[in-house]
Fold:
Amino acid sequence: MSLASDNMKILLTGVGKEWHVNILYKHVKDIKGLHVDFKQLGSILADRSILLEYDVLWSLGFFSDAPLIYALAKSYNPELKIVNEWVGTDIIMYNNAISMYPYLKNVLLKHVDAHVTTYDILQDELLQLGIQSHIVEAIPEKMYNIMPLPKGLDYATYIPPHRKDFYMYPVIVKLAEEYPDVNFHIFSLQDWKDYKPEFPNIHIHNKVTGKEKDKWVADTRAFISLVKHGGVGVMVQEWKHAGRYVIANRKLKYCHSVMTIDDIRKAIEDINSKTEPDREGSKYYHERYNPNIVRKHFKHVIEEVMSNGEGTESL
Structure:
């Protein structure tokens, strides 16, 4: 089936990363030659006849039932192409799952026509598991323009309350103790409720979105991204778009890459001395992570899948 002559119908869904699916949908829904819809997985399972209306099912986030759901989808619509998008911790979940249930790997690979991930770091991890993938970047819903660097020593980070260990909250506590003049602002989509931070320079902000988020991007000079596993990350991009500095415990372009607490200390001392925003970093992230790039790569995957059913070759 040709993209040039047909309006291909793609159905987006996902488990556990619905905000990610929504942002992807907003960026790709108006691609010429494609008809893209988004539906929650529950509504698809409740009425599986929906699958007969689409050429491609694009699902974000691997989960233990995914291979069986894909098999079910193919049984309803044998012509349906399936794209599985890996977004980060699902790679760890997959590795753990196949170690306990090896058959899941065969079921998954049998029914998936293309694998996609969001960053080259994750693409390399998938390759080590024997899975070739495309890259379709996860980008923010909003692209910030470069802003003047604030004079205050305010740093932002993202830590949900139920994943303090994964996002290395104890490191933030240690830094707050060592740098009493630096304010560490923790953002979360979930509510920390009545949690009392260990030090007065740790500030918790629950469910920060919209104009309030815009304010904090403007008012902080850096973003700290410490995770036990991950790629570039949407919030890293937001702060880089705005010309902010980023401390990350992985190798990211135009960021302070850190592996030890001493590395973090050196990065903070350097960033505290800055008086101007990171213009080169902002330029790079605007050019590398933007809606046009996402649309281009998304459409490429659909073309590959529909032309030969083998959309797993790396870009």
In short: The two ends are 22 Å apart (CA to CA). The mean pLDDT is 89. The longest strand covers residues 8-14.
